[in-house]
Write a structure and sequence with these properties.
Length: 59
């Protein structure tokens, strides 16, 4: 039981050291991720379209 109490005390002490992001930081990170994912998806779609077109003209 003593180990459990010690664990909880140490966990609380560590949580006081954590710096949580602000709402603005979370929003900026979210927007950045959405933009990057969208750009990569468009790039892959264009590559797929080009490859499909190239293969259909060959065959």
């Amino acid at each position: 039981m003593e180990k459990l109490i010690s664990y909880v005390k140490h966990s609380r002490a560590e949580l006081t050291k954590v710096i949580f992001p602000t709402k603005e930081q979370v929003r900026n990170a979210f927007v950045s991720v959405v933009i990057v994912v969208t750009v990569i998806a468009i790039f892959l779609a264009l590559i797929d379209l080009i490859m499909s077109f190239a293969l259909s003209t060959i065959a």
